[in-house]
Amino acid sequence: MRIFLPLAGGEPNPRGSVLPLGRERRSDDNAGVRTVLIVDDHDGFRHRARRLLEAEGWEVLGEACDASEALRAAAELKPEVVLLDVHLPDVSGLYLAQALSGDAAVVLTSSRDASDFADRLSGSGACGFVPKAELSSDALDALLP
Amino acid sequence: MDATETTEQAVARTLAEAADLRSAYPRVLRLMAEGLGWAFAAAWEPGPDGAPPLRCVASWWEDPTYDPFEGVTCSLALAAGEGLPGRVWETGQPDWIVDVTRDLNFPRARVAKTVGLRTALCFPARSVRGVVAVVELFDTAPREPDVELLRTLTGLGDQMGLAIERRRAEEAAHIGERRNRAMLAAALDAVIAIDHRGRILDFNPAAERTFGYEAGAVIGEDMADLIVPPSLRERHRAGLARFLATGDGPVLDRRVELTGMRADGSEFPLELTITRIDLPGPPTFTGYVRDITERKHQEAELRASRARMVQAADEARRRLERDLHDGAQQRLVGLALDLRLARSRMDSAPDEAARLLEEATDELAAATRELRELARGIHPAVLTEGGLEPALRTLVTRAALPTVLTVAAAVRHAPPIEVTAYFTVAEALTNVARYAEATEVEVELSYDNGSLIVEVRDDGRGGADAAGGTGLRGLADRVAALDGRLDIHSPPGEGTVVRAEIPCAS
Q1: Where is A53: in which H helix or E strand?
Q2: What is the mean pLDDT of each successive set of 10 residues along chain B, which is 506 residues long?
Q3: What would the pLDDT profile of B126-180 be if each residue is shown by its tens digit?
Q4: Beta strand extents in B233-370 (DSSP E only)
Q5: Distance (Å) from the C-alpha of residue A46 to the closest C-alpha of chain B?
Q6: d(CA B346, CA A61)
Q7: How far is B315 from chain A (nearest CA, A)?
């Protein structure tokens, strides 16, 4: 089954605020334990995201609190997924997503809503956006290619 | 040539040559009296407004016998129709009295009888405005009316009228000129007159002050060379040339803003009105110039302060968004994740779920606290409800350093005044805590001359830069927007005094 959801516009989003970013995904390609790198400058969020995703069967390979650390960790740990905060202290997550998206599936996250970023998410190379408060294994799965 | 003709010519010549009839009167009266054989002569004129009473302005006699008559003559003020001069004034016609001592309308009859004067004649001096003076002649012997003589004297009277009129016009012109001079000298605006070649004709004291030149040094000089900046000179000259050639003067008779140049070469903004002086001959122009440096400066400062206030408001909103995002919002995000995890653990690991709910409760309390702080920072509720005094008391209680609050009177003011006063204190206390290294702080609210005075004094290291911090600059703008002023006195090593003076008289 192939699902395509447009990013912008008045189309109702069937999964609430969780937003795939114009990529097609294959629903039959999610077997086994998935690995993730969490990139966010808030300790509290990294801690909780790790706890939640691990409880739901993910393997958290590492955490990074800024872009340079994220690039290093991604190259070293080779995660399948990078959960990436849009607001980082050094570089915008939107730019970092482009650099990372060649080797991993990037899911952007923020405590803000997708509509706060207008159409800038779609050009970032990320495969989806999930609001921080709605983070869950299911939400990530729904966005991955 | 008889005596009458000789006298007529002599008087006419005297009048024509006279620069000032007042000084010519005695000579004219003497020429008439002597030439025609009369013993006493007097001239009468009305007051400065040209209306009676008439008073004697000049007289002539040789024989001291007539001294008393002259004395009485000089003391009289005659209404129209009163006495001989009054009658001639009223009718505009010459008159002749054979014996004044028997005349019923001759107030000086008694003294005339005493000194022996009998016959009198009187004729008007007329101009286009009517009778302007009357002249009377007296003699001792009774003389019958001489129509020819009266006709001649009436002709002379008309010449005298012209002379008097000329003198009045000159006096009026002289007074007008003096008044104009005084107005130019007193004017606060620089007034400069130029001729059609651009040469300076007039340069008043305000122009001297404005441009730094002495009038004596610039009269006759080319104005453009002196007060028009080099970059604008060609335009000025082209404008003058175009007006002379076509009569088209777009800068005439309206206010324009230009740049002027002082004697030291410095340039300044000015407001100028040029008018053409409507006189025969080549045109001349008057320029009225006002130095608007101060006004421009104030306008620029006003614009800058408006821009700063807009920026400050924008910055405050950005900061608020950031504070919400970094604070309460993060906590609520964490709370959502904790709750979701707790729910998924409820059955499989109830102890862990309970611990997660505990964490979530703490997180919620923290978020609530942060939101409360934030709301207070935006606008403390106690300020709206209780006014400045309780709001400052709360603020002082929470201050990082021992702080003493003195309030002269707990009075309510308009919200903008209370808010500005409150944030002046709040910002000053924040600065004290951050930079001053002080041990104690005093906050005082008092009133002086219709203004609310807010002072925050600390005993710290001083040396605060009033222009440095955006916080203080923003406060200064706020205070200025209420027509008040913010002063910061902060000598190094002697503590800092932040003082806001906010007009609050209703």
Answers
A1: helix A43-55
A2: 79 77 82 91 89 92 94 93 94 92 91 93 89 93 88 86 80 84 88 91 93 93 93 89 83 88 95 85 88 93 88 87 86 91 91 92 90 87 89 90 90 91 92 90 94 95 75 85 91 93 84
A3: 988 889 899 999 999 888 898 888 888 888 888 888 887 877 788 788 888 888 8
A4: 255-261, 267-277, 284-291
A5: 10
A6: 26
A7: 19
8 Å CB contact of B329 and A111: yes
pLDDT digits (tens, 9 = 90+) for B16-69: 777 666 778 888 899 999 988 899 999 999 988 888 899 999 999 999 999 999
Cβ atoms B240, B198 nearer than 8 A: yes
Phi, psi angles (nearest 5°) of residue B108? -95, 15
Alpha helices in B414-455 (DSSP H): 415-431
**Phi, psi dihedrals of residue B295, rounded to the nearest 5°:** -65, -45
CB B292 within 8 A of CB B257: yes
Residue in chain B lying closest to A40 (CA) = B330
Residues 6 or more apart in contact with residue B328 via CB below 8 angstroms: B367, B370, B371, B374
Beta-carbon separation of B337 and A135 below 8 A: yes
- In what side-by-side order are the strands of the sheet with B40-45? B55-61, B40-45, B130-139, B119-127, B95-97
CB nearest A44 (choices: B325, B330, B345) = B330
Nearest residue, CB atoms, A44 vs list B334, B340, B344: B334
CA angle (B151 as vertex; B148, B152 as ends), nearest 5: 90
Q: Is the pLDDT of residue A22 over 60?
A: no
Closest-CA residue to B288 (of B183, B190, B187, B181): B190
Q: Are B342 and B357 in contact (CB under 8 A)?
A: yes
**Whole-model pTM?**
0.55
